[in-house]
Design a protein that fits this description.
Elements lengths: L1 H21 L6 H9 L4 H29 L3 H17 L6 H14 L4 H24 L5 H27 L8 H23 L7 H23 L7 H16 L4 E2 L2 H15 L6 H27 L1 E2 L10
Parallel strand pairs: 1-2
Helix pairs in contact: 1-2, 1-6, 2-6, 3-4, 3-5, 3-6, 4-5, 7-8, 7-9, 7-10, 8-9, 9-12, 10-11, 11-12
Length: 323
């Protein structure tokens, strides 16, 4: 917020000073145009400036025609705003209504429409929006450090959740308040917004690694929620649960690694094979618990498949890394 305020202040002052040097009438209006052209990212700024410029030029033409045909009356101002707003809204350019209305009021105050006056208004637009575009393109705050901190917070909470799952599989009486899950959701949303801003500041480049990372964690959160529902159905301690718990402990340590190699998949496959060789359940209670454990394993495969799809592949020649 502070950065936007500073950029708006600098843009307004520069636009007004430039207009004064060019000897434009209503030069202080260029400062208002510059403030309206400032936005949080480069992409949004470019889009906003294009929309406002086109809307203002359309408004200038409409106002010229309205005053020429209907005269310089107050009711014409009301009619102009009504027609102009509906037209811009239909064209999805309603953000330009303020600037186009300001230009219209300039024409009304002058009581005439001349080529010189029209040229003056176009120059005010160019000066205000041009300065805003330059300042936006020159400086946008870097969010790399903030995204890294958010990433670390997400992974810390993911690890805590996976350890809680492992703990419950070892002791079904374990109590957990779910704080880490709520925090993880907040941090993933926060990281997604930061990544989107970073992508928009890159203008025409494709979505970067940060966007992919937080999208991966967002999808994995849904998988974790399904696993938690299944874990709640484990109400008996079994050797099978201990084996699955060890797998979750390993994953809690390994999920921070940026590369995917498939080692956890291999361990899960071995565990599934081992389960098939174990004796059948002795009673309904054990059957239900083992069924829940089997479904947890299946959901864990979904969790890993998301990482397989979205995580970076390990470079050739590097030491083997866990996912």
């Amino acid at each position: 917020m502070l950065v936007r305020v500073v950029k708006s202040s600098v843009a307004a002052a520069a636009a007004i000073e430039g207009s004064l040097l060019l000897g434009l009438s209503n030069s202080y209006t260029a400062g208002l145009f510059a403030i309206l052209g400032i936005d949080t990212t480069k992409k949004r700024s470019v889009q906003s400036i294009i929309i406002r410029f086109i809307a203002s030029v359309i408004g200038l033409l409409v106002a010229t025609a309205a005053f020429y045909l209907l005269g310089y009356h107050v009711w014409v101002i009301g009619l102009y705003i009504f027609v102009q707003y509906l037209a811009l809204y239909k064209m999805k350019m309603q953000d330009g209504i303020v600037m186009s209305s300001v230009i219209m009021l300039h024409l009304y105050a002058a009581g005439e429409t001349t080529l010189k006056l029209i040229g003056n208004e176009v120059m005010l637009l160019a000066m205000g929006l041009g300065v805003a575009a330059i300042i936006n393109l020159i400086y946008t705050p870097r969010s790399e450090k903030q995204m890294m901190q958010t990433k670390e917070a997400v992974e810390a909470n993911f690890s805590a959740i996976l350890r809680e799952i492992a703990g419950h599989l070892r002791d079904f009486n374990r109590v957990w308040n779910g704080t880490e899950l709520l925090t993880a959701m907040e941090k993933v949303d926060e990281g997604g917004k930061l990544a989107m801003n970073a992508d928009e500041n890159a203008l025409f480049q494709n979505k970067g690694e940060w966007h992919t990372y937080f999208e991966m964690r967002r999808q994995q959160l849904f998988s974790i929620q399904r696993m938690l529902d299944l874990v709640s159905q484990v109400y008996q301690n079994l050797p099978h649960g201990e084996a699955v718990a060890e797998l979750f402990d390993s994953l809690a340590e390994d999920l921070k690694n940026p590369y995917y190699t498939g080692r956890i998949d291999e361990e899960l496959s071995k565990l599934d094979a081992a389960f098939k060789t174990m004796p059948l359940p002795e009673n309904r209670r054990e059957f239900e618990v083992r069924s829940a454990l089997l479904q947890i394993n299946l959901e864990l495969k979904t969790f890993l498949s998301i990482a397989k799809q979205l995580k970076k592949k390990r470079p050739q020649g590097r030491a083997e890394a866990l996912q």
